[in-house]
Specification:
alpha/beta; globular; single chain; Carbamate kinase; 8 helices; two-stranded antiparallel ribbon; 11 strands
Length: 239
């Protein structure tokens, strides 16, 4: 087995990735499978944090189309990420992981506030840190939250788990002949308007020289492959 090329990572896990075979909520086995993969990379000595989305419950922009104010909808979406974080904390513990849950939205008595210094200390102790609540502000996606938290904890890379095997020049679900990129620069992602991450997140990674790897979550062992520098998905501005 190869040695890891990263010492500390932040994994961006979408809410949709937690659906598994469900149509809403969380597929318990899918969540536990993620926990098992995280345990594998922890055993390699790789410190691991997560930012989790909330799309398996609801999306702020979808609520806006139904007449709910955008700011209200975004805050509802942030609460959905906290729900996912609470569930992941319990399910990860079943996989013998020591988990710390933090939220950008103040929720005393339920989850502790985001604190990058404490998060770094917990990571150094071998704990998994799950960040929820997005950035704590409306109009920002959880992609931007992931980039922000990765920079704050001084991660070596941001790993984005998706339903597709990397970054393509167009939607592979709609266009079977879509071309996959093995490597691509931040500027090209922005120039071509490739919607793998929102522009704010890509620019934040670029400005802080934070490598991003986009890969398929459902393929077993991909997290380990990425942290060991093996071919998996698409590398943005990285190795």
């Amino acid at each position: 087995m190869k040695n890891p090329v990263y010492r500390r990572i932040l994994l961006k896990l979408s809410g949709e990735a937690l659906l598994g075979r469900e149509t809403s909520g969380i597929d318990r086995e899918m969540a536990r499978s993620v926990g098992r993969e995280i345990r594998e990379v922890l055993e390699l000595g790789v410190q691991t944090a997560l930012v989790v989305g909330g799309g398996n419950f609801l999306r702020g922009e979808a609520l806006t189309r139904r007449g709910i104010d955008r700011v209200t909808g975004d805050f509802m979406g942030m609460l959905a990420t906290v729900m996912n974080g609470l569930a992941l904390r319990d399910l990860f513990r079943e996989e013998r992981l020591d988990v710390v849950l933090q939220s950008a939205v103040p929720m005393p008595g339920i989850v502790e506030p985001v604190n990058p210094d404490r998060a770094r200390r917990c990571l150094e102790e071998g704990k998994v840190v799950i960040f929820t609540g997005g950035t704590g502000n409306p109009f920002f996606t959880t992609d931007t939250a992931a980039a922000l938290r990765a920079v704050e904890i001084r991660a070596d890379a941001l790993l984005k788990a998706t339903k597709v095997d990397g970054v393509f020049d167009r939607d592979p679900a709609a266009f079977p002949d879509a071309r996959k990129f093995d490597r691509i620069d931040y500027g090209e992602v922005l120039e071509k308007n490739l919607r793998v991450m929102d522009g704010t997140a890509v620019a934040l990674c670029r400005d802080n020289r934070l490598p991003v790897v986009v890969f398929r979550m459902e393929e077993r062992g991909n997290i380990r492959r990425v942290v060991c520098g093996e071919p998996a998905g698409t590398s943005i501005g990285g190795l």
